[in-house]
Write a structure and sequence with these properties.
214 residues, homodimer, elongated, Tetracycline Repressor, domain 2, DNA-binding
DNA sequence: CCGAATCATGAATCGAGGTTCATATTTCAT
DNA sequence: ATGAAATATGAACCTCGATTCATGATTCGG
């Protein structure tokens, strides 16, 4: 077992270089087809139930071709995870740039997250599958997401917009809420998250769940 | 493919009979050893990374013995899932019997959930792994849990203790919060959930996260 | 338009691990 | 005490799927 240097939680650690980058138009197309096929299949059936055979078949390439771009099955999985992570964060950042206040920012962030999961509803399955495919990746994913979230929350606490709880607790509560709401609607019900639900969620995190005892 | 009758979401569907029940003291002990070994291994390494070989070795039985009690690898996984599900619900019900109001009930419920996950920290890994092992089981698990939760929440809404949101939304928010707080602390940090965190969580769901703009 | 680099092929390899089964041992009701 | 039922054994089987590699086709800069 040749253990390579451990991959600590450095923010910008990228593993995307694991792949052998195509240098030709043809190569790029092929790689794209492979990635698409893999994302679809992993999303539907998970890592261990997806055969390389199926990926290459669905991508219309020979099995050997797969190994031109990825050293092994796990690499493509990890690659997809990072890709999704980046894409999600990018969408959220872009969607929230000109929000007037933190509350609006949360709302738009939630909406963006829901629509992203709706588009890439394999995100969950891939991320959750990760804990048994590439152990570190799973924690890395959420801790990373939380860290970015944290920055915004702390700022909003300084400005007085957000109450003075332990910010990490708040961040994990908010991530929990969005993840489970998306799970319920997009994964279980196979529908977009209804507007009414989004609004109730906003009310819950604004006003709490309980009525005051009179 | 001989598709057996589809397992709809009937509350009390039990699959525990999948196993060949032992009729002897010896048999019971053996089965218990196998279950313990399997729970440990599945928790640590997930379903697909756990070999029958390892389970039986860790349980000190021969490979054939495994198949006396379970028809195949998936059965024992499913069995464990149900067992955990029942155990968790039982603990929560028992812990909350004499709570004075819904808010206290939530708090005690949260505490019990955290302590359960702390004791059986494989619960998460097993449940989340499930979506790729036994697809229905994953959704079944959460929907089932949600349904029980819902009953209590609706009651508390009638009595006016809980605000009048869509109860399903509220339930999934609360499940999301507890699951992610447990994830952060018990799984990622490998520590029990600190008291301060529990208190902040309670405040968040009581008072919300935002300060009112003055 | 040539040839070195790139990309593609797919049959063959190889190891892994779930499951079976013929045989042996243990239990326990009578 | 006894034998039928219940348990236990573990080597052998068998399938499946990740990966390799020798060979062939394409690309594209100069």
């Amino acid at each position: 077992m040749n253990m390579t240097e451990h991959n600590t939680l450095k923010p910008n650690t990228s593993v995307l270089e694991l792949i052998n980058k195509p240098k030709t138009a043809r190569g790029k197309k092929t790689l794209a087809r492979i990635l698409k096929a893999a994302e679809d299949l992993f999303s539907q059936k998970g890592f261990y139930n997806t055969k390389i055979t199926e990926i290459v078949e669905s991508a219309n390439v020979a099995s050997g071709t797969f190994y031109i771009y990825f050293p092994d099955k796990k690499s493509i999985f990890r690659y997809l995870m990072e890709e999704l992570n980046h894409a999600l964060r990018k969408e959220i950042v872009e969607a929230t740039v000109d929000c007037k206040n933190r509350k609006e920012e949360e709302k738009v962030g939630f909406e963006t997250f829901f629509s992203f999961v709706n588009k890439h509803n394999g995100l969950f399955r891939i991320v959750w599958d990760a804990q048994f495919v590439i152990e570190e990746a799973f924690m890395e994913y959420y801790e990373n997401f939380a860290q970015h979230y944290l920055v915004g929350i702390k700022k909003a606490q300084k400005s007085g917009e957000v109450k003075d709880y332990d910010p990490t607790t708040l961040v994990y509560c908010l991530m929990g809420i969005t993840n489970f709401i998306a799970l319920k609607w997009i994964i279980f019900e196979k529908k977009p998250v209804p507007q009414k639900v989004l609004e109730d969620v906003m009310k819950i995190i604004s006003e709490g769940a309980f009525n005051l005892p009179e």
